[in-house]
Design goal:
Blueprint lengths: L1 E6 L6 H6 L7 E5 L2 E10 L4 E9 L1 H6 L23 H10 L1 H4 L14 E11 L2 H8 L5 E8 L9 E13 L1 H15 L10 H10 L9 H8 L4 H11 L13 H24 L4 E5 L5 H9 L4 E6 L2 H11 L4 H4 L2 E5 L14 E5 L10 H12 L3 E7 L26 H15 L1 E8 L10 E8 L2
Parallel strand pairs: 8-9, 8-11, 9-10, 11-12
Antiparallel strand pairs: 1-4, 1-5, 2-3, 3-4, 5-7, 6-7, 12-14, 13-14
InterPro entries: 3'-RNA_MeTfrase_Hen1_bac (IPR024026), Hen1 (IPR026610), Hen1_N (IPR024740), Hen1_N_sf (IPR038546), Methyltransf_12 (IPR013217), SAM-dependent_MTases_sf (IPR029063)
Enzyme class: transferase
Protein name: Small RNA 2'-O-methyltransferase
Length: 458
């Protein structure tokens, strides 16, 4: 099976840096089911093409441990697996282009988020035209599908089940590879590997920033997880967008009013601290529906406010609400789509940054990436980070012991845990930090939220 990647952006051979595969050489990788080969049939400054060829050994698969799965015995040897894009190709992508897939380029990091004029060709894929359009077109691809004849020597037999898929888009390479990594297995009805709970983590990691907002999200998730209901429900729950910026748990009406008040207190406290710093520019990282952004442009004189979020749906809501403000206020605000775990040149040069109830939505092993993006690369003079105080959860009447406040939270820290993290980040990146409670404090359990105020030491 083949995948062709063509870059027509000026300095097109930069594709070799991104893929970590030199255009002048042939690269081979041994896989559990065969061999993956990467080569460049064309490598010029105006056009560079990399081809991933995956040679699947169907006989070896059958003879391997666990290879015999029953069914039509001859079908284990005579099938379309060696040439049709399938889960084998997604695995080969991960093994051969893993660095590019994860958005890293050591020698040329500025290339990672650069949009490229890309053309992708899958010469053979088995899927209906409608499904290919529904999966790829909403992501901004130009989709061209050519159905293949059932038998070229007998055109009267008509079209077969396979097609050639050609995609065009101007996107960063890592985004394109992630789309393929998720969508190719979702189109494959016969995955070569066992689909268990660990597949949810892979799906969500590669689907971050786009899958939750895809109009066919549920259909993609179901197919990717082979229609396993329990896994599908868990994945969809974790993908559910956080439409309300408040992270406090649902409670009776009287408590609900108090919950809203806590959320407002948190935003008011952050806005007040930012205003007192007298910054010329502020970036709200993980801005959600833009509540803090609106506060800053409505009630302060800060000249420039940028809001960034990974959810296009939340940004749409934020934009609608900003549009209701007078032009003199809304023109000071800008909203952009982006992830907090990838270095982004748009974040450079800000005086202050805010992460309001954001870090707890990241898996703990991704916090280091966020720290590098915010504190090492963007490095604003001040950074304000708020997060729930887990010790306070016992005071919410409807919360089960050990439960988290929001379905999308990956963790919640005690005051001591938050302080340990904050002081380590400050020490690692040249900041001083002060810890503050947010909300009314309980004598034993502290405040509902907690804030770390970082100041860069020049």
């Amino acid at each position: 099976m083949l995948l062709s990647l063509t870059n027509r952006t000026p300095d097109a051979t930069d594709l070799g840096h991104l893929l970590h595969k030199h255009p002048a050489r042939v690269h081979e990788t041994t896989l559990p089911f065969g061999t993956a080969t990467v080569f460049y049939p064309r490598a010029e400054e105006n056009e560079c093409t990399a081809v991933l060829s995956v040679d699947v050994d169907p006989v070896g698969l059958v003879r391997s441990t666990g290879g015999r799965q029953g069914g039509w015995s001859l079908g284990q040897y005579v099938n379309d697996r060696p040439y049709t894009a399938s889960s084998f190709l997604a695995t080969a992508l991960s093994r051969t282009f893993g660095t590019a897939l994860n958005g890293r380029c050591t020698k040329r990091p500025e290339l990672v988020d650069r949009p490229l004029d890309l053309e992708l060709i899958l010469p053979v894929i088995q899927a209906p035209d409608e499904l290919l359009q529904r999966f790829f077109a909403p992501l901004g691809y130009s989709v061209e599908i050519t159905r293949l004849p059932l038998e070229p020597a007998f055109p009267d037999w008509g079209e077969g089940r396979h097609a050639t898929l050609r995609l065009r888009a101007e996107k960063p390479l890592h985004q394109v590879l992630r789309h393929l990594f998720v969508l190719i297995p979702a189109l494959d009805r016969d995955k070569h590997y066992w689909v268990g709970r660990e597949e949810i983590d892979k799906l969500l990691a590669k689907g971050e920033g786009w899958l939750g907002d895809h109009p066919e999200c549920e259909w993609i998730v179901r197919r990717y997880l082979k229609y396993q209901q329990r896994l599908t429900h868990e994945a969809l729950d974790r993908l559910a967008p956080e439409i309300d910026d408040s992270d406090e748990p649902d409670e009776p009406p009287a408590e609900k009013e108090r919950r809203v008040s806590l959320h407002e207190q948190r935003l008011d406290a952050v806005a007040a601290r930012l205003e007192a710093m007298q910054p010329q520019s502020v970036v709200d990282l993980g801005c959600g529906e833009g509540k803090l952004v609106r506060r800053l442009v409505k009630h302060t004189a800060i000249p420039r406010v940028l809001g960034m979020d990974v959810s296009s749906r939340a940004l749409g809501i934020a934009r609608d609400k900003l549009d209701r403000l007078p032009a003199s206020k809304r023109d000071r605000a800008q909203l952009v789509l982006g992830s907090l775990i990838y270095r982004d040149s748009r974040l450079a040069g800000f005086d202050a940054a805010a992460l309001v109830e954001v870090i707890e939505h990241l898996d703990p092993d991704r916090l280091e990436a966020l720290e590098q993006v915010v504190f090492a690369h963007a490095a604003p003079r001040h950074v304000l980070v708020t997060t729930p105080n887990r010790e306070y959860n016992v005071l919410f009447e409807n919360m089960a012991p050990g439960a988290l406040r929001h379905a999308d939270h990956r963790f919640e820290w005690t005051r001591a845990e938050f302080e340990t993290w904050a002081r380590q980040v400050a020490a690692d990146h040249g900041y001083e930090v002060a810890l503050e409670p947010l909300g009314e404090e309980h004598p034993d359990h502290g405040a509902p939220s907690q804030m770390a105020v970082f100041r860069r030491v020049d």
